[in-house]
Amino acid sequence: MLCLKCHFHCPAGFSKQMVEILSKHEISFSSFDVFSDEEVRQGLKTFSKWPTYPQLYVAGELIGGLDIVKELEASGELDTICPKAQKLEDRLKALINKAPVMLFMKGNKQMAKCGFSKQIIEIMNNTGVDYETFDILEDEEVRQGLKTFSNWPTYPQLYVRGELVGGLDIVKELKESGELLPVLKGQN
């Protein structure tokens, strides 16, 4: 967590510099604008015994301010202390392989949020095969990135053992031909 003054308005640009360093090193972080809550702004100074902002925390522990982060960057230690942001391609691969049968859709298996997703859920539920879902409406990066990664422009998208099977039309064709169950079980 990075607690900072709004990095666009910081007179000396310390918060902006901190964000730039973390971004340059592809470090995964979230931030809190201390100008948005005066109680937090003052309380955190007391809690951390650090009088200025920005303040960088990793796993709940104060690392320090901008000068400390610059020193860690110069020594090469910053990359070992801070968690890296997962690259989108690696994240997509991990999601695709989260379960043997993975369905990317609008909504989830309890509540589809579009007609196509509802239809594919009905088909999947009738197979008796266990599957997981990912709601693409909850994560725009995944929603857009998966279309490019899979070279499949629409949703839903069904994956079996990390391989794209296709969308609703393909699943319907497989069902009608009797091939869906073997495909879902990896017997193709």
TrEMBL record:
GO terms for cellular component: cytosol; nucleus. InterPro entries: Glutaredoxin (IPR002109), GRX_PICOT-like (IPR033658), Monothiol_GRX-rel (IPR004480), Thioredoxin-like_sf (IPR036249). It comes from the Eukaryota. The keyword Iron-sulfur applies. It holds the Pfam family Glutaredoxin. Residues 13-63, 101-165 form the Glutaredoxin domain. One of its GO terms (biological process) is intracellular iron ion homeostasis. PROSITE patterns: GLUTAREDOXIN_2 (PS51354). CDD domains: GRX_PICOT_like. Keywords: Iron, Iron-sulfur, Metal-binding. One of its GO terms (molecular function) is metal ion binding. The keyword Ubl conjugation does not apply. This is GLRX3 protein. The lineage of its organism: Eukaryota, Metazoa, Chordata, Craniata, Vertebrata.
